[in-house]
Amino acid sequence: MNKLVFLDLDGTLWENENIPHSAVRAIERAQANGHKIFVNTGRTRNEAIDVLEPLHLDGYCFGAGSEIYYQGKRILYEPLKKKDIQTIYDLLNDLHFGISLEGSAKSFCNFINKGMYLHAFNTMPNTFALLRFLNSPGMDEFTEADYDQIMKIYLYNIEHVPYEQIIPKLPKTTELTEFADWKCEITNRKYNKATAIRTVRKLFDDSYETMAMGDSENDIPMLKEADLAVVMGNGSPRVKPLGDYVTSDIHQDGLYNAFQHFHLI
């Protein structure tokens, strides 16, 4: 049976925006065999499309399911509401959070997140890809028109404020997802990586089954939604139990080996 394959980016398809050659070969061969390959990522369009376009994928699910493309056409676009962005920003700015407003066309970050990116760039190996975020405009460049293209909010809880103190104060239309190292993101509650799969699935008949590949906590919805769930060998311990198959590490041809295991190639 042909498959609709949904790939996370960071830690799954690429690391620091470097895609293993084996992954490129696997995607090309799978497409030639009739499978459809989609990215399903928390990143917004402007944070990834330049690297992805040369792969000629069948489609993209950006911003945790809030912006979706198939064969070059946008089929879903749901930015956060202006009043929700304002509420979240005012609340978390007062609590000294690092804040990045991540947009379809442009992203913005405050000085705390800029400092976090700069520290990582200066102290960690292989972080060239962080320049994308480090060079984002500051909040002083944010305009009224930019409210219409903000898809999600990425946060650094620098003072380790308990999340149970924050979540009840967030707009009911939004949802907070925690990551490691006091990072988290806020997205539209209606959309996630699972709803992205459902949206794309409606475009195809029953001759396709779905397969999702991921490595971290924000991949959990799509791993639960897909017919087949694959977790990377470098994946989070919280995520690995959800996999029908745990493939090898991203640096050990994890994507290629998973495609081979399920006979896509």
Structural account:
One of its GO terms (molecular function) is phosphatase activity. With 265 residues, the chain is α/β, with parallel strands linked by helices. It has 2 domains: 2-78 and 192-261, HAD superfamily/HAD-like (Rossmann fold); 82-188, Hypothetical Protein, Haloacid Dehalogenase-like Hydrolase, Chain: A, domain 2 (2-Layer Sandwich). Helices cover 28% and strands 24% of the residues. It has 9 helices and 13 strands. The chain has helices at residues 21-32, 49-52, 82-94, 111-123, 131-134, 163-166, 193-201, 220-225, 254-261; strands at residues 2-7, 36-40, 59-62, 67-70, 73-77, 98-103, 108-109, 150-156, 174-178, 183-188, 208-214, 228-231, 245-246. Strands 5-4-3-2-1-11-12-13 form an 8-stranded mixed sheet. Strands 7-6-8-10-9 form a 5-stranded antiparallel sheet. α1 packs parallel to α9 (254-261). The longest helix is centred in the N-terminal third of the chain and has 13 residues, at 82-94. The mean pLDDT is 95.
What's the SSE blueprint?
Blueprint: E1 2-7, H1 21-32, E2 36-40, H2 49-52, E3 59-62, E4 67-70, E5 73-77, H3 82-94, E6 98-103, E7 108-109, H4 111-123, H5 131-134, E8 150-156, H6 163-166, E9 174-178, E10 183-188, H7 193-201, E11 208-214, H8 220-225, E12 228-231, E13 245-246, H9 254-261
Parallel strand pairs: 1-2, 1-11, 2-3, 11-12, 12-13
Antiparallel strand pairs: 3-4, 4-5, 6-7, 6-8, 8-10, 9-10
Q: What are its keywords?
A:
single chain; 265 residues; alpha/beta; Rossmann fold; eight-stranded mixed sheet; five-stranded antiparallel sheet; 9 helices; 13 strands; 28% helix
